[in-house]
């Protein structure tokens, strides 16, 4: 039964359209993470942790992101293969390296004195809007979830004592705290992604879900 579900994640209706939107979403998320790192207002919880590991170890952000996702991938394989899809692999291998490339590119074009506060705020606002939309589309195409997102879902599916929302919040806070202890910046980006991503997914889903049916 599970194998049929896994296969369904790789052969969905409107597969060409789903793959195109998935690709654009992964690239957009990677670009936005690079901008978040540049402007210094924090990043999403997962990136906060892996950026901290990257800063401490000297290993590239993309590689840290990939290794962290691979570690989280193991319990997903063990307990619920139905959550695996092409989107899972794309997120694991794509976002971090796209962000690495864009951070190098931005670094080459950053003024010696750095970006002004007005420029940073503008870059932040545009990137935040793009990130929320891209992340929402990533979820709506429904081609498998990122290992980071799958872990709290696995926990929630196996307990009735705590709500799925509370488990996700505890998961994000834990990873975010570890990133902070490793030296990553926690700021406005972190708060907005935490509170606004859910509503963004619901809004996008209501308006575009029919595109993929």
Please give a structural write-up.
- The protein is mainly α.
- The chain has one domain.
- It is built from 9 helices and no strands.
- Helix 6 packs across helix 9.
- The chain is globular.
List the helices and strands and how they pair.
Layout: H1 2-10, H2 15-39, H3 45-57, H4 61-79, H5 86-108, H6 117-140, H7 147-157, H8 164-181, H9 188-208
Summarize the structure.
The chain has 213 residues and is an all-alpha fold. The chain has helices spanning 2-10, 15-39, 45-57, 61-79, 86-108, 117-140, 147-157, 164-181, 188-208.
Overview features:
9 helices; mainly alpha; 213 residues; globular
Tell me the Rg in angstroms: 17 Å
Main pleated sheet: none
Helical run tally: 9
Distance between the termini: 22 Å
Low-confidence stretches: none
Tell me the structural class: mainly alpha
- Helical proportion, percent range: over 70%
Oligomeric grouping of the chains? single chain
Count the E strands: 0
Query: How does the overall form come out from the CA principal axes?
Result: globular
How do the SSEs run, as a string of H and E? Answer: HHHHHHHHH
Q: Per DSSP, what share of the residues sits in E-state strands of 2 or more residues?
A: under 5%
Compute the number of structural domains.
1
Q: What average pLDDT do the residues reach?
A: 86
